[in-house]
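Summary for the steering committee. One of the milestones for this cycle was to obtain a three-dimensional model of the protein with calcium ion bound, which we needed before selecting residues for the alanine scan. The sequence and ligand used are listed below.
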Amino acid sequence: MKGKALNMRRFAVAATAAAALVAVTGTAATAAPEDRDSGIGIQSTTGVHVTGDWNGDGIDTAGWYFDDTGTWYLRNSNTSGGADLAFTFGSTDEVGYPVVGDWDGNGIDTVGLVRGGTWLLRNSNTAGSADVAFVYGDTGPDGQPVGYPVAGDWDGNGTDTPGLRRDNLWLLRNANSSGGANGTFTYGDQYETGFEVVGDWNGDGYDTIGLVRAGNWLLRNTNNTGGADLSFSYGAAWPDHWPVPGDWDNNNTDTPGVADAGGWFFRNSNTTGSGEIVFNFA
Ligand SMILES: [Ca+2]
Ligand SMILES: [Ca+2]
Ligand SMILES: [Ca+2]
Ligand SMILES: [Ca+2]
């Protein structure tokens, strides 16, 4: 970890507005971590963990985002050590919500920020301004996105695009441009307490959704309403462990990972078991 501890703010739609696409209730910027469990919001004191393929070698690796400085620290191997890449994308006390993905389909995951309903995406892991900017979703009264932003390749064309989870309502879009959702469905419970995750759990080329509830991974292989196709336990409950799935062995299947203040614990199968790749990057 670089610099001082920070508070990362994420906000969900008000639980009572589960079916509403627009109406929200603001949440306080001082929301406590346990508020995540009540569906209100979360806060981390250690920066935000991200994973992605920063160098295009097919393996997802670890990264951090710090909103007090808008700085990203990315590592290109899942081994203990320092950052291979460090750059600023964002501003001091950045209000944006970090997202990562392959926005242009060149095989390299890069960074992005979601400020309210505005998505600001960069196509290289370097300091600079957004290469792509568009509106998807709404801006809450606190300036934050309404719901939790996610990104994935929903249509299997090699490009990651935006999604939002609002309580148990998921809204996915297939283009990095302004517009509405291409797919909308429910997954999870009303007043869902799980932590949203996205990945290609079965290696078919499509990213799909999932929830992690207190260390229980509930993954679905299609982006529509239904139950979990995969269910297993891995890691401790948030906030002790932050879920960070990815493809650690380059077999095109995403599997679970968790991280805490400095430790990263990755597993290569979507089954209950211990961490197979363990290292420190802080
Ligand atoms: Ca890319
Ligand atoms: Ca796509
Ligand atoms: Ca899939
Ligand atoms: Ca894999």
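Key point for the committee: Confidence is low (pLDDT under 50) at residues 1-45.
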